[in-house]
Amino acid sequence: YYDDYSDLLALWIYSMTKWNALDILKGDSTLELRPNGPTALGLGFNYKGYGIGIAIGLPKSNSSKEKYGSTSRFDVQVNVYGKKLGMDGYVQYYKGYYIQNPEDFMDWDSDIYPQLPDMEVLSIGLSAFYIFNSDKFSYRAAYVRTQVQKKSAGTFTAGIFGQTDMVTTE
Question: What is this structure's pTM?
C-alpha cells in the first residue's frame, strides 16, 4: 500500500507564518490580541527516520513595528511519527501583542494599533495517538514525506491531547 524511502536523504526549504493569537470573549464581544508575527524561512532534512527543520524569522520593517508593535518569541515544535504510534508537542512563548479590533470597543481611526508590549503568553501542548491500520496506511506519507502512499487506505486513530496556556501582563 505504500513505499518507504526513509533511507534516502530528503532536503526541503520552506516558509511559514506561526503565531499565538488570543481572543477574549465577553458576551457578544471578542477582543482580538495578536503578536506581530513574522514570516520565517527554513531549511530541513529527513534521513533514516530522523529529521529536523530550523526556521529563522525574517526581519520586520520599521513601519510594521510602529503599526503593530514588536514581538519576541520562542517557538518549538516536535513531531514523532512511528508506524503505529505518533506524537506532537510544542512550546510557544510570545511577548508583545497588539489589539487587532480596537474599533469594536472605542472610536479608533489611527493606523497604529493599541499595543501591549509587556503581555506574555506561554503555551505548551502534547498529543499522542495510535494508528490502527498501520499496515496499509502511512501517516509519514502525508506529514514527513519519506513514504509514498501507492494505494488508498484509511485508518482510525485514537489518542489524547493536553494543552495549557498562561498569560501575564505587567
Answer: 0.82
